[in-house]
Amino acid sequence: MALAEMRRIARRGPLLWWLCGPVRSGADVAPGFVWVEEGRVVGNVSLRRALEWGGFFVGNVAVHPDWRGRGIATALMEAALKEISARGGCWVGLEVRADNQVARRLYECLGFREVGRTLHMLRPAGLPWAGSPPPHPLLRRGRSSDGAALIELVRTIVPKPQRPLLELRRRDYRPGWERALDLWLEGRREVWWVVEEDGAICGAVRVLRERGRRPDRLEVLVAPECGGRFETILVRQGIVSLRGAPKKTVETVLPSPTEPLVMALEAAGFQKLRVLVQMRLDLAHRIPVRG
């Protein structure tokens, strides 16, 4: 899939140059590099700009098993970092599975440092839907006026160094008719539920129904000082909000997984899939690696 995307963008290079001029040429949107042996692509690395100014992301770093251990991944990464520097990049981010020790050592040798982890969990398709939970006096539907409080809630959960790598966008945490309309036009539907106590939002769940075969999504937020109190309530409400959808897979990503939240998700049928480590390299402080 990565190679297909790289070839597609490469084919559009001349057209983009003709439309936008040399400032936005095909070279400016090159998606990465490949390693070719005997006419065969045996390795690749992709890169793209991050939402935060000066940042780039490196992804799809892969080498065919028959060609590993020959320095190809290092050479691809060095080429990507050189390209990012040439484009004026200030920092580079990437994600790697926590159990991929070989890749993590490579990135550490290149100067990358861990800034956070995310736990990915899935609820398999076909599981029975739980019964409706009893009404809770602190639980209500989210509304447009909750936007500022939800954004602040996310900031208390996700550490500052990790936020740029997760590319958290303010618009994703602003419930309202404008966002609902945009999602509806895309064939998607979003529902927010919040727990409010003494005028402050201390927990929330976002339910996103995706179109087609893409997994539906659940995002649960609980303020650190309220840990252990509202996780089960929010998870159950989120599952109930998906009941009318086809029996699809449901995914969730936990940027700061806590034991009460993981237990609540497991009780609802979610299973741990993987842990991803977010790593960052500040190019101004990088020492080039040789050999």
Layout of strands and helices, then pairs:
Blueprint: H1 2-20, E1 32-37, E2 40-49, E3 55-63, H2 72-86, E4 91-97, H3 101-109, E5 113-123, E6 139-141, H4 147-157, H5 163-166, H6 177-185, E7 189-197, E8 200-209, E9 216-222, H7 231-241, E10 250-254, H8 259-267, E11 271-282
Helix pairs in contact: 7-8
Describe this protein with a few key phrases:
Aminopeptidase; eleven-stranded mixed β-sheet; alpha+beta; elongated; 31% strand
Global Rg? 22 Å
Mean pLDDT value? 88
In which range does the helix fraction lie? 25-40%
- The overall number of domains is 2
- Uncertain segments are 17-29
Sheet having the most strands? 11 strands, mixed
**Helix/strand-derived class?**
alpha+beta
> So how many helices?
8
The top level CATH class name of the largest domain: Alpha Beta
CATH superfamily of the largest domain: Gcn5-related N-acetyltransferase (GNAT)
How many β-strands, per DSSP? Answer: 11
